[in-house]
Design brief:
By secondary structure, this protein is of the alpha/beta class. The chain folds into 2 domains: about 40 residues, no CATH class; about 280 residues, Glycoside hydrolase/deacetylase (TIM Barrel), CATH 3.20.20.370. It has 12 helices and 7 strands. Strands 1, 2, 3, 4, 5, 6 and 7 form a 7-stranded parallel beta sheet that branches. The termini are far apart. It binds zinc ion (ZN). Zinc ion binds next to loops.
């Protein structure tokens, strides 16, 4: 053993001893120290991971909150955790001076700025390929000026075409433009909980909002649990998840608490670009009508999970009776 090797061994022992002190308050043997750090790593690896993806930033959130306040709160909640989200921009909602300022706030904070079409068309019967393709390209100009513009496209309503031709033609166009699909794995109806909350606020000045927060948190956790289990059953492994939430007042008010609730339930928040690195996001389910959560579509493609799949995967009709019953 030469001097340099000796020093390296000495250094490593010192580090391990320090680690032992740090972990247990006394020096540990090499084996015990390694075991300890392994446990910490395993613990981390065992937590399901999920990223925030937020759709439809808008300068008009209704009469109770302005977009500046919404931006401050949402970016604040993400910033506290040093977390980078993906923002899916629908051009018509931000195509004005304030909209540019809204998007700049996200861009400056390092979040991904992605394409969600210009007019939010539903790519089913009424919308043909030509119209849908032109609308996707029109949104390019909206997101082009931003440093963190990212070539991810999210289909409005998560609808990816109702014929093989439409579906595959548009998938081809995305590839031509260097795009990938910004899939949702955990779909939900946060927008509907927001609609109900806004209706209550319009009817009852100063109405209590906590019950809407609690419903939102329970709903998102429930859907995350459902899609996580479905992914495990379909793919046989844990995937990195992407949660769909919308740029709405309810999330501006409560995103911080949503995030804390997920952590308490065992989830780990990760950056959106890290989530989208998971190879699952390169899958192209051959289903019709195409779309929904990526996990939903992969499950449908196998033909084995029919009793667990409803279409659409998520919608207001599933939440309405539950919210009615709760008097929300
Ligand atoms: Zn949308």
């Amino acid at each position: 053993m030469n001097r340099r090797d000796f020093l390296r061994v000495l250094e490593r022992s010192a580090v391990i001893a320090a680690l032992g002190h740090c972990v247990k308050g006394s020096s540990l043997s090499l084996v015990a120290a390694q075991g300890e750090s392994q446990t910490v790593l395993d613990g981390r690896r065992g937590r399901p991971q999920i990223a925030i993806t937020m759709d439809d930033p808008q300068v008009e959130l209704g009469p109770f909150m302005g977009w500046k306040e919404a931006n401050r709160r949402i970016l604040g909640a993400l910033g506290e955790r040093k977390l980078k989200a993906a923002l899916f921009v629908c051009g018509m909602r931000v195509d004005r001076v304030e909209g540019k300022a809204l998007l700049s706030g996200w861009d400056d904070a390092g979040h991904l700025i992605c394409n969600h079409s210009y007019s939010h068309l539903m790519y089913l019967r009424k919308t043909g390929y030509e119209e849908f393709a032109a609308d996707f390209l029109r949104d390019e100009a909206i997101i082009a000026p931003y440093r963190h513009r990212t070539a991810l496209f999210r289909y409005p309503y998560l609808k990816e075409g109702d014929t093989v031709e439409k579906r595959d033609h548009f998938r081809g166009l995305l590839k031509e433009h260097g795009y990938r699909v910004g899939h949702v794995t955990v779909d939900a109806s946060d927008w509907y909980v927001d609609e109900r909350m806004m209706a209550r606020l319009r009817n009852v000045a100063g109405a209590k909002l906590e019950p809407y927060r609690d419903y939102l948190i329970a709903h998102l956790l429930d859907r995350a649990g459902f899609y996580r289990q479905l992914a495990l059953d379909v793919l046989g492994r844990e995937v990195r998840h992407t949660l769909l939430v919308h740029y709405r007042m309810i999330n501006a008010l409560f995103l911080r608490e949503v995030m804390a609730a997920f952590e308490k339930a065992g989830w780990e928040w990760i950056d959106a670009d890290r989530a989208f690195e998971d190879p699952v996001f390169r899958r192209e389910p051959q289903t019709l009508p195409a779309g929904e959560s990526l996990i939903w579509a992969l499950a449908a493609e196998t033909g084995k999970f029919k009793e667990r799949l409803r279409w659409p995967g998520e919608d207001d009709v599933y939440e309405k009776p539950k919210m009615d019953a709760l008097g929300l």
